[in-house]
Specification:
Layout lengths: L1 E6 L13 H13 L3 E6 L3 H10 L3 E4 L3 E3 L5 E3 H7 L9 H8 L1 H10 L7 E4 L16 E5 L13 E2 L2 H15 L3 E5 L5 E8 L5 E9 L12 H6 L3 E4 L3 H17 L5 E8 L5 E7 L10 H10 L3 H14 L3 H7 L6 H4 L3
Parallel strand pairs: 1-2, 1-3
Antiparallel strand pairs: 4-5, 6-9, 7-8, 7-9, 10-11, 10-13, 11-12, 13-14
Helix pairs in contact: 1-10, 4-5
């Protein structure tokens, strides 16, 4: 089967994606071991995408959400390949907006009765005093559309109005969008990987993320901690908590209309109640460190190459059966290979 991986020069990308070239090469190697013909494309222009369409691959693996054009517009890969009737992995454009905009995701899920952190958005100078703030301190501030800890540091945790104003201004200057302001919960943070398998069952894997203690005595899961890989990833043993995490992850997956896979971040309060934080629809795939494959390994003992195999199972199932049969040489372990 002919499979192509699509990425872009993304060293400065502040939104979610598989990661750098090394991560994409790890995915390529895993797909190659499945017996497919696979190539990696680093696309810069729409012409690069058209060349892929002309080759008519059976499946394209989207390692980023969009291509940034010269006019600063975004060309969403899922929309582009859907238009050209090319099978692709992951969610369509109308669902990817919940990854790009945390507020949209929170609003949709809240309307469906799913608990989310209380929040509001802020612009510099919008609020004149503490009394005007919709939620009381302490608060946590972060970009509305960034991932991978971008914009998050010790100063994201604010306990007074002066700190609030300073962080709002700093984030707005860097990201030029309204700032997301959330209530701060004292409980642990969890990330949950969800993969929809060939038979439509969900494989759910969860881990606790324990940030390092900063110089200010805070545990902030920010950009530096993620770059340094200094946070701990711990298996969850509490069965009641596991059931709560499973239910929320399932509700979020279906509530947002996600396709194929997602990574969902959940925060708990001091009583162990779960609250949705954000969703990542093009999760990091750096072997040995990214939360998505690591949670599958830690919680369900699924090795990296098998995680990739599972991630592609729905995409491969969308290929017409006759087309699959014509391109795969049957052998004695065919059923076993495709039973996942």
């Amino acid at each position: 089967m002919n499979i192509e991986i699509i990425t872009t020069p993304n060293e400065d990308l502040k939104e979610s994606g598989f990661g750098n070239l090394s991560a994409c090469n790890s995915v390529l190697e895993a797909v190659s071991k499945m017996g497919h013909h696979v190539v990696l494309n680093i696309c810069n222009t729409e012409d690069d995408l058209q060349a892929i369409v002309n080759r008519e691959p059976d499946l394209v693996i989207l390692a980023v959400k969009y291509l940034s054009l010269d006019d600063k517009n975004k060309l969403y890969l899922s929309q582009y390949f859907s238009k050209h009737k090319i099978n692709y992995t992951g969610s369509p454009k109308d669902v990817l907006k919940y990854d790009s905009n945390k507020v949209l995701a929170k609003a949709r899920l809240k309307n469906r009765g799913i608990k989310t952190l209380n929040y509001f958005t802020a612009l510099p100078g919008q609020y004149k005093s503490e009394k005007q703030l919709p939620i009381g301190f302490p608060l946590f501030l972060k970009p509305i559309d960034a991932a991978n800890g971008n914009g998050i540091d010790d100063l994201s945790y604010v306990t007074n109005f002066e700190q609030f104003e300073s962080k709002v201004l700093a984030l707005h200057n860097e990201f030029t969008l309204p700032v997301l302001v959330e209530e701060y919960l004292e409980g642990p943070e969890y990330t949950v990987s969800v993969i929809q398998m060939k038979d439509a069952r969900l494989l759910i894997s969860h881990i606790e993320i324990v940030p390092p203690v900063s110089t200010n005595g805070l545990k902030i899961l920010g950009y530096k901690a993620k770059i340094d890989n200094s946070e701990q990833q711990k298996k969850v043993f509490n069965n009641i908590l596991k059931m709560k995490l499973n239910k929320m992850a399932t509700d979020v997956f279906y509530g947002l209309g996600v396709r194929d896979y997602a990574r969902i971040d959940i925060k708990t309060d001091k009583n162990g109640e779960c609250y949705f934080m954000e969703v990542n629809l093009v999760p990091g795939m750096t072997e040995g460190s990214s939360y998505f494959p690591k949670s599958c390994e830690i919680d369900n003992s699924v090795a990296y190459n098998d995680v990739v195999k599972l991630m592609l199972s729905q995409g491969i199932s969308r290929i017409p059966r006759l087309q699959v049969m014509s391109k795969i040489k049957l052998n004695s372990n065919f059923l076993e290979e495709w039973s996942i």
